[in-house]
Structures are given as structure tokens and as C-alpha cells.
VIT1/CCC1 family predicted Fe2+/Mn2+ transporter (Runella defluvii), 476 residues
Amino acid sequence: MDTIRHHENSILHKEEHLTSSAFITDIVIGMSDGLTVPFALAAGLSGAVDSNALVVTAGIAEIVAGSIAMGLGGFLAGQTEVEHYDAEQKREYWEIENLRQREIDETKEIFAEMGLSPELQEKVTQEIAKDKNKWVEFMMKYELGLEKPDPNQARKSALTIGISYAFGGMVPLLPYFFTSTPFEGLIWSAVTTLICLFIFGYFKSKATGQHPWLGALKVTLIGAVAAAAAFGVAKLFE
Amino acid sequence: MDTIRHHENSILHKEEHLTSSAFITDIVIGMSDGLTVPFALAAGLSGAVDSNALVVTAGIAEIVAGSIAMGLGGFLAGQTEVEHYDAEQKREYWEIENLRQREIDETKEIFAEMGLSPELQEKVTQEIAKDKNKWVEFMMKYELGLEKPDPNQARKSALTIGISYAFGGMVPLLPYFFTSTPFEGLIWSAVTTLICLFIFGYFKSKATGQHPWLGALKVTLIGAVAAAAAFGVAKLFE
């Protein structure tokens, strides 16, 4: 699930200045992950144990583990990102003072890659280099590819995703509370979770500009395959 | 864990042209995630059940679920990323043909944001707009923030991360094979896993340019907190 996250985020990030949309996106991401892994775990156990209480206990443990790993992990990673940006920024200021010619060459190089003629590279670089703050900002963005991180956004996102993961994880687990055998629980769990995965996949794909029905199918498929595989493997270890 | 991934990837990505280093990074990422969640799940169950076989079954089911969600999810997300790039590229070519003036204004706008004077904005834009392919490439990168995705890298990464997750997950689980009570298993699992998390945290932080000891501590802390919380909550549901 992490790799999906990464790709989606690289698309989603562009819109993250719309805070409310980022919030909704975080909820959708957390929920669809939360739906997938606890669902597959519960399905796997259903093939191997005969007590609903055990499935529920394991599911709860997984939800707690997963949402803490996501929430706390994201929180700490958010701090690290801010520190990383500040350190690189300080280094750029230092380089502009002390290795001015090298920085000028690097700036020219960036414009050369854009396809500018040597003459314009020269002129543009001279203009950029006039204002120290603007120059550093330019190097941060175009040499290092770093945008100034909002010190709160990453943490807010992490918490939203962590909490949504926990809520999402309850969907596949709840049927095991209200049924008497793991098999019965599994049936209801699969029905409700696959429907929810499809709905979330639809909105997630819409938010990232993908084809919504195809995206919904993919998300549902991942959940179904993960659950089927977990079921099969757990049966072997029964 | 997903949010960590996302932040780390935004840093790691810059170095991804070094394929061998990307490969090692993927292994480290998959393993440290695989160490965390199955560890916490097994720890949680150790507080609630009295059979090692159950802990092992649940752990295996989680590993299968998690690595499929990661591997297959990443594989499909990689395809989507390539499709997304191609669609946007096609749109840019169309816009350059049919909405030329708007595209010229957008290009100027990009240079205005870099801090160039109106005169140079004009000149630079004229030069960029001469070569259609270069112009589209420029718009893809600087207007949309999209780099041409390597059609294979995302999938390769996803598979490497998925497989590493599975291997990482075996570390916290193996002690339960060789001990007779879940409590005994938990002790050995915690010792070996926390050591491994510390080592992986160290290398992961080094690879992303973070402070290695501090990073190692953070990664270990996340694992420990997740395991302790899962243990506590599962005890309530015992």
C-alpha cells in the first residue's frame, strides 16, 4: 500500500494548497488502506481459526499497529522534512556567499537544460543572482527540487491518515462482532469491504485525475487478491 | 508507515537515477515497514492468546496481506503514473497547437515567478516556444511538475519493497516458531526486531541524508510504541 501512496502523493501534492481537498484526500487514502490490510488479515484468519473473538482481537491489534505506524511515522517524517529543508537552505545561502562562481554555473546549467541559448542563459542568470533570497529560493526549487514544506501539513495529514486507517479498518472487522462463525463473518466482511473499496477507489481516482471506474476496479481487485492470498496461505498453516 | 514512505520518497527520488542505490533503498524501506507492523501485530496477539501457532498464523496472514497490498498496489500505481504522464503530454501538445497564446502566457508566468523581468520573460519564452518538443517537455516539468516516469522503475520498486516487506516480517515472527509460549516468543521477537529496526533506521536515515543515529532512534521508537499499543489494546479484548 505504501508504494501506491507514494505515487498518488506525487500527483496529489500538486493540489495540496487546497487544504480542504487535501483533508478529504487524506481521509480517502487512510480509509482505503485501512480497508485493505485488516480485511485481508481477517479473511486469512477466517480460513484458519474457528473463533470470531480471535479474528477480532487480531484485527484490532493490526489496526492499532498500522495506524500508529502511519500516524506517528508520518508525524516524525514531517519534522524531518522541515529540518531537511532548513539545512539545505542554509547550505545554499552559504554556497552563494562562498562558492558564487560554482552557483552561477549551476544556475546557467538549469537554464541550459530548459533549452535556452548561451546568451540568454547568461542574462537570465545575472538577473536571478541579483536578489540573494530569490536566488536561494530558485536553487531550492529547481536545483534540489525542494518546495518549502508547511510545518503543519505533513503532521496534520499523517494524523488524518492514521485516524482514517483506524476507521476504515473497522469496516471489515465489524461483521465478525455480529456473526457467530468466522466463515459467516468473512462473507459479510467481504461484501461490505469490497463495496466500500470500490466506492473509495472511485473517489480516490477522481481526486488524482485517474479514470474513476478503472481506478475503483483496481483498488477493489487489490483488496480481493490480498484477502484471497492471505486466506489461502493461512489455511496452509492451520 | 505510508506517510513516512511518501516523505522519504520525495527525498529519495532525486537519487533514483542511481539504480543500484534505489534498489538498496527499496529493500531497506520494505524491510523496516515489514519489521514494524507484523512485529506489533504479533506483540498484540501475545498479550491476548496463549498459542504460538495462532500468533504465527495471524502474522503470516498479515505479511501476505501487507506485501500483496504493497507489491500489487505499487505495480498498478506505476502503470497509472505512466498513463497519467502520457495523457497530460498529449494534452500539452494539443494546447500548444490550439491555445498557443494561453500557453505562451503560462510560460511567461513561470519565468515571472522565478523572478525575471518582463523583458527577459518575453525573450526566454520566445526561445522556448521555438521547439515544440522542448516546449512540451518544459511545460510538463515546470507547469505540471511531472517528470517522465521510467515505465519499469515503479514496478521494480514495488516488487522489491513487497518482497522485502515479507522478509522483514519474518524477523519478528521467527521467534514464535522456536519458543513454547507467546510471552517467551514476544521477548525474543522484541529483542531481535528492535535491534533490526535500529540497524535499518540507521541505514535508511543515511540514505535519505538524515542524521543516522537520530533516525535510527525514531524508527525503533515507532516500532516499540506500535507494539506496546497493540499489546495493550489486545489485552483489553482478550
Summary: Chain A touches chain B through 86 residues (CB under 8 Å). The CA atoms of residues 11 and 91 of chain A lie 29 Å apart. The mean pLDDT of chain A is 83. Chain A is about 85% helix and 0% strand.
